[in-house]
Predict the structure.
Amino acid sequence: MSGNQRNAMVLQALQREAESRAAAGSALGLMASMYPICRSITGDGVRRTLDLIGERIPLERTEVPSGTPAFDWEIPREWNIRDAWIADASGRRVVDFRAHNLHVVNYSVPVDRTMTLQELEPHLHSIPERPDWIPYRTTYYRENWGFCLRHRDREVLGPGPYRVVIDSTLAPGHLTYAESVVEGSADGEAIVYTHTCHPSLANDNLSGIAVAVALASALRAERPRLTWRFIFGPGTIGSLAWLSRNERRLPRLRSGLVIGLLGDSGPLTYKRSRRGTAVTDRAAACVLTSAAHRGTLTDFEPYGYDERQFCSPGFDLPVGRLTRSSNANYPEYHSSADDLSLIVPEQLAGSIRAAAEMIAVLDANRRVLNLSPKGEPRLGKRGLYGSVGGAGPGEFEHALLWVLSLADGTNDLLAMAERSGVPFALLDRAASALQEAGLARTLEEAAAPSRASA
Ligand code: ZN
């Protein structure tokens, strides 16, 4: 049995209802263990999160020193926080980081002073329309500090004075990202990128991390055709840091997905790469528009997650994005209401099924050449065709005929699925059978064109 078929079997299991639900249950367990940690774009919260991921899949970490350039950016100083609070005159904490890590503006510089409410006001953030939610705010690239609180709590604050403490450090250190690599049998690589920088927020983006872990651990069970690289790094600066250290890899990159927001109640949404017709975009169209997933496809726009970096014109990589609700498009986005109760287990399972199918399609997709193109080869004598005539071809025979007809070297399996309407998995099975019978062979891909290789 070829490596390709074995891989398809593992990913097929994850596409089934029962297996995907079990995987979603396990993913929820991982999310619950990661949820309390205060993460940021750098710091020990990220490392503790990677420790938890590393208990499930092998991880290779990279620590990039502060000050290291990454194109037009540079790695910032490392941020760590131990405690923070606003206390009234009696010493009672009216805002307490230990109760919820969203209470502190992420990347706040250290503070220890006594202030009136009036002096404190410019440093407070709340959402008047959602008085029970704590907003999520950051100040990565501008030295500042602040607190986020429920509007209901803000409204009852007296004139003060208040003791205001943020016990944080912003010092030379590192940005940490990690990769889990599943080696493939053929040339070519694919990436799955998910951001790891958000503190106690569930859908954005513990769901992305947990789904990436589920996919990596399934893929590890067999040998895929492509080398699959799962990257866990902070948003924006993390993908920039990875790209700046991996330019030599990019000519081998066949496909990629940025994933996140995979557990909410919204429909699956695929955002096309900047190219719009990359193999990832075609695979998404093939998989997500099926009755099983009922997803939607949207065109590229230069706003969103790390696809912004992968699809920037200097790289223009075949990288799309898979989410349910898109960023900023659900009310709980970037607030304390994006907690574990927002995650719908069946939705998370559906995301795992769709992502597993996309990976299976991207991994199996290949150009095949018919080695007996003059007339139809005799399939019956090779045991590939039903021996009783007259009934017309069955599904599998039909797929064999389509592959033979379109395997002139110009079409990949996705193109065959698009033209014939035959399901991709059946064409893959037919192509493998023809290859094993010596009637067809895989055409190895030339290095994908990439401007980064210039
Ligand atoms: Zn976010």
Summary: Residues 1-7, 447-454 have pLDDT under 50 and may be disordered.
